[in-house]
Amino acid sequence: MTSVNQKLNFSQQWQNLNRKVTSVQTQLTALNKELELKQAEHQQIQKQLDSYPQGDFYSRFYRDYHQLQLELFQRRANASKY
């Protein structure tokens, strides 16, 4: 009887461990996909930065991202009102 109970307990422990392993594998797969996307995004940004002449970076930043700067400024101004 004890042997049967031990085997049942071992089986339950193995099933629990197997579920945990499967969960970790699923999380790892999702994180690897996220990492691949981030690396591709990084490469795209790096290519864009590399295409800018070094001496002209700051003037391009203000020109290319002026609308974003205005939106950020307006958000900060609105947030400080509250």
Write the SSE topology.
Blueprint: H1 2-51, H2 57-64, H3 66-81
Give a nutshell description of this structure.
The protein is mainly α and 82 residues long.
Please provide a written account of the structure:
The chain has helices at 2-51, 57-64, 66-81. The protein is elongated. Helices cover 90% and strands 0% of the residues. The chain is mainly alpha-helical and 82 residues long. The chain has three helices and no strands.
Task: Please trace the helix and strand order, writing H or E for each element.
Answer: HHH
Derived from helix and strand composition plus strand pairing, the structural class reads: mainly alpha
Spans with pLDDT under 50 lasting ≥5 residues? none
Query: Roughly how many Å is the radius of gyration?
Result: 27 Å
Largest sheet: none
Task: Return the average pLDDT rounded to an integer.
Answer: 87
Shape: elongated
The termini sit apart by 71 Å
Which bin fits the share of residues in helices?
over 70%
Number of strands: 0
Number of helices: 3
Task: Report strand %.
Answer: under 5%
Which descriptors would you attach to this protein?
single chain, 82 residues, mainly alpha, 3 helices, 90% helix, 0% strand
